[in-house]
Amino acid sequence: MYGQSSSSQKGRTIKGTVSNLKGPLEGGNVILKGEPEGTVTNAKGEFTFPVALETGDVLVISFLGYESIRISIESMYQ
pLDDT at position 29, please? Predict the structure, then answer.
């Protein structure tokens, strides 16, 4: 998983790409742990999370046939 972040007023808008060794994965689920918010990767494996995230939030990325992974959102200014 490769991700980039950019600033927003209440948190960060997270953009990223879900892929494996063969390339991008279309249709991967990206959700905020414990919440209903989420999105699905496009044909290029790309996603933009629909709500601003805060430090400590955890994204859960899942795709049929693969183990889910969790990615913690870290502070931009440490």
Answer: 95
